[in-house]
Fold:
Amino acid sequence: MHNLSIFGTSSDAGKSTLTWVIGKLLQDAGYSVAPFKAQNVSNNAHVANDGSEIAIAQHFQAKALGVPTSWHNNPVLLKSGRGNSASLIVGGKAVQTKDVRDYYRDLDTLKPIVIEAFEWLDARYDVVIAEGAGSPVELNLMDKDLSNIFIASHFKTKIILVADIEKGGVFASIYGVYHLLPSALRKNVIGVIVNKFRGDMSLFDEGVRIIEQEFGIPVLGVMPYEAFNLGFEDSQSLKNYAQNCEKATQHIAVIAYPTMSNYTDFEPLLAKEEVCVKFIGSNSDLSGFDTIILPGSKLVIEDLKWLKKTGLFAQIQRLYTAKKVKIIGICGGYQMLFSAIVDNICVEVEEPTRIEALGFIDDEIVFQKEKILKIDANKYEIHHGTSTKYPTEYNAPLLYGTFSHGLFVDSHFVSYEQTQCSLFSKKMHSYLKSSTIIASLKAE
Structure:
């Protein structure tokens, strides 16, 4: 079997979801499958089974496919840092913070570990499905691309294009991406999937004819727009979530500060009919909520400053002092509940810093250089901040904080997640030309 690359004709075309959906299709046909993304840019990470740090998307894809996770699924991860810098995770471990320009200049030094990761998976699975990043033909960045052209060229993967029809311009995006690909890669394109179609699909029959007959590109499926509130990879995924609050008896505000991370923490809440979740990104009135959640943060000190600047900091203090709301802090949000945050070794800041926090917990958070990575069943920790008095959690009336992500995951949600993935993949498979995809991957 050939390995497979999933290229989007634009960002947010649905590559992450279709990676595991196609993977499930191949599993059902009797093949073993592993998800892979050479380089991901995301503040949302998870601790893998081997104790490494990988992007949420690759962890979710593996979980949906029922395969173990390791750094090999995502050998390079970039998380936003201060200014133009980014935190670089290589082989599942944080190695340094680099200026983005330096990162791209030194990109060739990362290729050996990307190759090692792909080859490790290739030796253990029938098919490695490599998710691309953004568009594969950003001409000014093609020589700096690890996830698209490099993987497809080095490993001679077959390629499926994914086009987002909702954005408009779907014909131009398909035609343009296909013809801007290097000629050697165009030969490996087995077809295109048109994603996120709304309405009567027969209205696109002529579109399928144009793509197949005039462009010469097989259409492997036209997929309906389907909200899937699992595996949130980024803020765009979060904006696309759908929730019906008509039966809600609990109203929860999640403070969506600029570098909010690990959005998947809230998927179990979104799955409950009795809970209505609203993401708050400005100084909105919080008095009508039963609970306020301070979520994870990639840059805790910067997000704490934003909290103060918007006025949400003072509002949260006032509501908690008046005992009118329950406060929950998760990881970075937990750290904001303390009296102060101290970063003397400049993990997040350029100069040693001590900043006053919400003051609900009688201890200071002190940053340490070595990142803490822990996993225990469905809960996991990824953080630099530490507390002497309350190293794992704090629990008091109307106040709870924890360093652990996965706080709301329970047996009900695990079952729900498995059921939703199964139902979603089966529905999507009905729109795909499964036999054509499998035959193309088997062809010499």
Observations:
- Residues 411-429 form the longest helix (19 residues).
